[in-house]
Amino acid sequence: ECILSGIMSVNGKKVLHMDRNSYYGGESASITPLEDLYKRFNLPGTPPESMGRGRDWNVDLIPKFLMANGQLVKMLLYTEVTRYLDFKVIEGSFVYKGGKIYKVPSTEAEALASSLMGLFEKRRFRKFLVYVANFDENDPRTFEGVDPKKTTMRDVYKKFDLGQDVIDFTGHALALYRTDDYLDQPCQETINRIKLYSESLARYGKSPYLYPLYGLGELPQGFARLSAIYGGTYMLNKPIEEIVIENGKVVGVKSEGEVARCKQLICDPSYVSDRVTKVGQVIRVICILSHPIKNTNDANSCQIIIPQNQVNRKSDIYVCMISSAHNVAAQGKYIAIASTTVETADPEKEIKPALDLLEPIEQKFVSISDLFAPTDLGTESQIFISRTYDATTHFETTCDDIKDIYKRMMGSEFDFEEMKRKKNDIYGEEEQQ
């Protein structure tokens, strides 16, 4: 919602942004001080002395990283919200196989040294990576007999004779699919996802992921500032009493007895329970540790993906780990957040393989949230509802949702270049340097 309010303001719309909370970012906020996190999860007492100063903590409720070459980074660059934020590269990406974790080989040299694969497998994987790097959907000469719109990904893996383990980590740790449904779909999307991973990685070398200092709560604040620069108004602590509808169309929002009139409304599912449907659940467990995760070379930040095949599930389990290096935890402390899509009546048992990798855990905070999707696309009502955050550990699916809402609101595709031009009209070119 914050990103859209920034984008809509740049587009010349008059934006009023209301939030019933006293902080920015709704359910994707970062909670500080630590005492507030204990309160939020109804834990008795206060954090122990050993946790350091409460103010040193900024704990994300929804863990996600940014792909260095991904859509959110483009949005940040084009809107220049980057001037309000500082990023660090996440130190490594790991994948789980047979009860152990291995670094995801990200370069040819790493692939050749990796103990994830045997020698011949490595050669085949290398050939596959070279193929993907050269693949250009506009140049049939790079297809080598593959039809990007027809050939399934399963067939592409067969073409390179890749074994099950390699397929697992390619699909889940490089292409970042949550399930194996992609195998029987045309390969173009998967190849582009692997390219995005490799290009993101090429930018900084250690991993393809970035993370903002002081936590993800900085992102909505940055876009709120952008909105303000373009004349948007922001109101925190603003209770929403009613969404006012006339003849099936939104005309305003009632708060504290007054109605703010509008032609279009953007909100998350929590404001319009009658226009959304439950599509699943996510479990997230925030863990405070006093040590880096074992077998990660003492990285102060990393991502671990547990592919579903490895733990007999239908969807992957993710772990994001960050630390005092990102100004989100006290000195010597680490925050690891495990998340996955709920599949059974015992979600805590489902996430156990991830928690086992994190032991010993000093304190954990468990949340199980419902996932909602809009049943009303806003065509008639002009109410545009976002989807709940999923279990993935990067922002690509969130950006897809933003572009989808933009298209439904504006009737045209979201165009990065167009946005850049609009900004230049207001700021002038020369100031951008």
Automatic annotation (TrEMBL):
PANTHER family: RAB GDP DISSOCIATION INHIBITOR BETA, RAB GDP-DISSOCIATION INHIBITOR. Gene3D superfamilies: FAD/NAD(P)-binding domain, Guanine Nucleotide Dissociation Inhibitor, domain 1, Guanine Nucleotide Dissociation Inhibitor, domain 2. GDP-dissociation inhibitor preventing the GDP to GTP exchange of most Rab proteins. By keeping these small GTPases in their inactive GDP-bound form regulates intracellular membrane trafficking. Negatively regulates protein transport to the cilium and ciliogenesis through the inhibition of RAB8A. Regulates the GDP/GTP exchange reaction of most RAB proteins by inhibiting the dissociation of GDP from them, and the subsequent binding of GTP. Interacts with RHOH. Interacts with the GDP-bound inactive forms of RAB3A, RAB3B, RAB3C, RAB5A, RAB5B, RAB5C, RAB8A, RAB8B, RAB10, RAB12, RAB35, and RAB43; binds RAB3D to a lesser extent. Interacts with DZIP1; this interaction negatively regulates the interaction of GDI2 with GDP-bound RAB8A. GO terms for biological process: protein transport; small GTPase-mediated signal transduction; vesicle-mediated transport. The gene is Gdi2. Its main location: cytoplasm. It comes from Crypturellus soui. Belongs to the Rab GDI family. GO terms for cellular component: Golgi apparatus; membrane. This is Rab GDP dissociation inhibitor. It is found in: Cytoplasm; Golgi apparatus, trans-Golgi network; Membrane. Keywords: Acetylation, Cytoplasm, Golgi apparatus, GTPase activation, Membrane, Phosphoprotein. It is a peripheral membrane protein. GO terms for molecular function: GTPase activator activity; Rab GDP-dissociation inhibitor activity. Pfam families: GDI. It comes from the Eukaryota. InterPro entries: FAD/NAD-bd_sf, GDP_dissociation_inhibitor, RabGDI.
